[in-house]
Request: fold
Amino acid sequence: DADVTQTPRNRITKTGKRIMLECSQTKGHDRMYWYRQDPGLGLRLIYYSFDVKDINKGEISDGYSVSRQAQAKFSLSLESAIPNQTALYFCATSGTSGADNEQFFGPGTRLTVL
Amino acid sequence: AQTVTQSQPEMSVQEAETVTLSCTYDTSESDYYLFWYKQPPSRQMILVIRQEAYKQQNATENRFSVNFQKAAKSFSLKISDSQLGDAAMYFCAQQSNFGNEKLTFGTGTRLTIIP
Reply:
């Protein structure tokens, strides 16, 4: 079984709809991240959480919100989706600093907003 | 702010040959990590190799090695004996060792392997 899972894997929605992307991990990591990937731009950080009570904005958080329901679960919401939020979304997890800081990525969710 | 630059949008190499992908970065920190990630058509992000900035020795993982030039802020990836399975997008990334420790990614290099 995959260590980091994302649901759904693909989603098509309409402008103005609310949508939630979910991430679960079995690695026992405290730290979780949401990234967005656009063609030609690499991955950019949306939100990150170092534990269930610690949530922080990344560089492109406008239009997004997150919820850390448990150590293993971190969801990303688009309250009112717009077409320029069409992208590939990745969840990632990591341990604490130092040798355990490698980030492990989920398989990605391809979101299309019409 | 941290920035990572990959100046080669596309590269190609003959199977079994060697190819080098370039990456430069900018940071004011002295302690950080550098990574190369591979993204095949399956879109999964796979860690290829990592380098700790305080270590002078270049990291090596089987056919993959890096040339880390800290003063020049350069971190290139060399793939030896290229295989068809190496075809993918390759992303260079930097991670601070302090604060939020987020990954800052370059824009990627698409590597094609020619049979």
